[in-house]
């Protein structure tokens, strides 16, 4: 008849796993472990038949696990893996497949890519196994766990399943190996004098041997997806603001919401708080909402003499409506007089209170122009502000 058959060896009792339910029937990602691998074999076009080998006392469990899938009637397995495989080979004698794959029923993640590589290699080889090169340092110990020596890992591989063979060659080799304890079917073929070819395995092709393996497989099958962005708006935006006010005779300057005694004041339609105006413009710029003049035009008499913290609070409200929160403020005041240093902390605290952040996020600096320009001559005061806003929606 020809074709390719798969023997799924699933006759284990689960005693070493520590579960009353054999590990091949434990639920993984919503389905029994054995179902995942049989499903993969059913779906691959290069596989013609799947032959389960089980303990017949588990037949009801198998039937439930593979409901809706296509497979040959299960045959009795054994406590010894070699005996189970030999029984599976015997069940395929009438079919006489060209090739047979032997797979552990406790390895649920069988990738199509690995199956493709195995089937392609079987076109020219009588025995093919997937394997992973050993990359960790290997130590040999005595019975007490003391290291005896370090094993050279060069050309060492970790064998996986499914392992692929020419059906006739493997059947004969298994008969010849009766009575000898060999660890896998590749070893059976080696004992019979056949060469075994290695193809690249799959790190995710994990055999379930402990509860931790189920946890690891769940994580592989359900990788954490990056959360959908809550908005297509940028996470961070930066704004800058600059303002200038001319000086005039007076008794105080309002700077950052703080009254500073002075022999001059600042001219303006409102309280002429150059610092708060610069910060307001910086926030409006960060959220692309124009400038302070477009929201509070000097032609509007209702803003004559108004306290500038109203302007700043309005800009913060627009920022919040746009889905952003203030990150930090960096303010520089440019003037010869008054001296800002003695009032720095009070200005920081007032600005922080107005915008609703800690003073730790507000920087206030002052500088001069070395007597140059209008600020150097005392004709006016300038302020430059930069703000960072962060998306919150």
Give a verbal description of the structure.
Helix content is about 30%, strand content about 25%. It has about 400 residues and is an alpha/beta fold. The protein folds into two domains: about 5-220, Spore Coat Polysaccharide Biosynthesis Protein SpsA, Chain A (Alpha-Beta Complex), CATH 3.90.550; about 235-390, 2-C-methyl-D-erythritol 2,4-cyclodiphosphate synthase (60s Ribosomal Protein L30, Chain: A), CATH 3.30.1330.50. Strands 1, 4, 5, 6, 7, 10, 11 and 12 form an eight-stranded mixed beta sheet that branches. It is rod-shaped, with a radius of gyration of 39 Å. The chain starts with a strand and ends with a strand.
Distance between the termini: 64 Å
Per DSSP, the total helix count is 12
Q: In the CATH scheme, what's the topology name of the largest domain?
A: Spore Coat Polysaccharide Biosynthesis Protein SpsA, Chain A
Find the count of extended strands (DSSP E, 2+ residues).
19
Low-confidence stretches: none
Biggest β-sheet: count, sense, barrel? 8 strands, mixed
Based on the coordinates given, report the CATH architecture of the largest domain: Alpha-Beta Complex
Q: Helix share of residues? A: 25-40%
Overall shape: it is: rod-shaped
Chain oligomer state = single chain
- Mind telling me the CATH class of the largest domain? Alpha Beta
Number of domains: 2
Q: What gyration radius follows from the Cα positions, in whole Å?
A: 39 Å
Mean of the pLDDT scores?
91
CATH homologous group name of the largest domain: Spore Coat Polysaccharide Biosynthesis Protein SpsA, Chain A
Amount of beta strand: 25-35%
Q: Briefly note the structural class of the backbone.
A: alpha/beta
């Amino acid at each position: 008849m020809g074709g390719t058959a798969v023997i799924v060896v699933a006759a284990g009792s689960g005693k070493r796993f520590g579960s009353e339910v054999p590990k091949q029937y434990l639920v993984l990602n919503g389905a029994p472990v054995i179902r995942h691998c049989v499903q993969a074999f059913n779906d691959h076009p290069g596989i013609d038949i799947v032959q389960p080998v089980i303990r017949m006392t588990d037949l009801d469990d198998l039937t439930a696990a593979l409901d809706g899938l296509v497979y040959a009637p299960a045959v009795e397995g054994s406590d010894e893996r070699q005996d189970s495989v030999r029984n599976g080979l015997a069940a395929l004698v009438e079919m006489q497949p060209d090739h047979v794959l032997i797979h552990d029923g406790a390895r649920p993640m069988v990738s199509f890519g690995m199956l493709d590589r195995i089937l392609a290699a079987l076109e020219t080889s009588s025995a093919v196994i997937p394997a992973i090169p050993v990359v960790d340092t290997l130590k040999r110990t005595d019975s007490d766990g003391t290291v005896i020596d370090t094993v050279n890992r060069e050309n060492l591989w970790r064998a996986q399943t499914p392992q692929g063979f020419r059906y006739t060659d493997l059947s004969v080799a298994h008969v010849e190996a009766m009575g000898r304890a060999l660890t896998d079917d590749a070893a059976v073929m080696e004992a019979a004098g056949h060469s075994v070819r290695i193809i690249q395995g799959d790190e995710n092709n994990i055999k379930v041997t402990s509860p931790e393996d189920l946890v690891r497989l769940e994580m592989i099958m359900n990788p954490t997806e990056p959360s959908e962005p809550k908005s297509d708006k940028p996470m961070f935006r930066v704004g800058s603001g600059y303002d200038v006010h001319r000086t005039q005779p007076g008794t105080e300057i309002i700077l950052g919401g703080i009254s500073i005694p002075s022999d001059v004041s600042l001219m303006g339609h409102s309280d002429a708080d150059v610092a708060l105006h610069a910060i307001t413009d910086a926030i409006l710029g960060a959220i692309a909402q124009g400038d302070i003049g477009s929201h509070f035009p000097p032609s509007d008499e209702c803003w004559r003499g108004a306290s500038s913290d109203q302007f700043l609070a309005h800009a913060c409200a627009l920022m919040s409506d746009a889905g952003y929160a203030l990150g930090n403020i960096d303010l520089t005041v440019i003037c010869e007089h008054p001296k800002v240093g003695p009032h720095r902390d009070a200005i920081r605290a007032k600005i922080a209170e107005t915008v609703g952040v800690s003073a730790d996020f507000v920087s206030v600096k002052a500088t001069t122009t070395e007597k140059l320009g209008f600020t150097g001559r005392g004709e006016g005061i300038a302020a430059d502000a930069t703000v960072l806003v962060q998306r919150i929606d």
